[in-house]
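thought: fold this chain, then report.
action: predict
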Amino acid sequence: MANGLGVTAEPARVESRASRWLAASLDFARKQPLGAAGAVIVLVMAAAAFLADAIAPYDPLNTDYSAMFQAPSLNHWFGTDAFGRDVLSRLIYGSRTALLVGLSSSFFSATLGAILGVASAYFGGKIDLITQRFMDILLSFPLIVLALAVVAILGSGLMNVILAITIPMIPRSALVVRSTSLALRRMPFVDAARALGFGHWRIILRHMLPNVIAPYLIMLTAFMGQAILLEASLSFLGLGVAEPVAAWGLMLRGAAVEFAERAPWMAIFPGIAISLSVFAFNLFGDSLRDALDPKLRIS
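observation:
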């Protein structure tokens, strides 16, 4: 739509929106430098995953037995593995596996946990009591133990790994969201929705759930690091993704068990990748919590 001078207002609106995003990003970087550093690492990891086909120097599945166990050099910056495959290329493609598992499992676990937490707080009574006792039972087990149990039942494979990581994280999300929703259910807008005759699930999904978006976003980023670490642990134990898929935990498994002394670079670089990604998501998640929580916000 054009204004009186015949100039379209839409580009100005887009530019204004971009300026606000840039200002907010710079303000976040100033107040939360560690969180900004974590966000940069996350963006680099995402760029490597999306541009893997263009930036990887070699095919991650291409074997070259004449180049087995080559130390880092100009031809292979991070060396080669027991099959002559380029370690750097497998690390770059491994970021796809890490992000796919991390994003999928953290999204499903945080979303399902948020819905369960809001519903439990809204209905209260016996429903809340039974739901929370079941969540307490799941919370009593370490994440890796529940993930191993799910994989043992369903078997290995990428989709089963995502499911195995999603299920143990749901109670953690539900517990955090429930604590916030207990105050929301007594708010006037919830009473007004009931007075208008809205159904329970409409009130939960359209009125209460949007008001827990801040803890939801925090859990989403925090779960990413845990999910990547869990996927690497399962793959290291031989219960995650299988060869020849490029995955950081799978690279560590072969390197640490058989070739740690002969070719230490096979273990060092995947270990650094896992540590950096988990560290980055944890830093970003903590900083996001400080930025979104008024009680913790730095002036």
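thought: worth noting. The mean pLDDT is 81.
final: tokens above.
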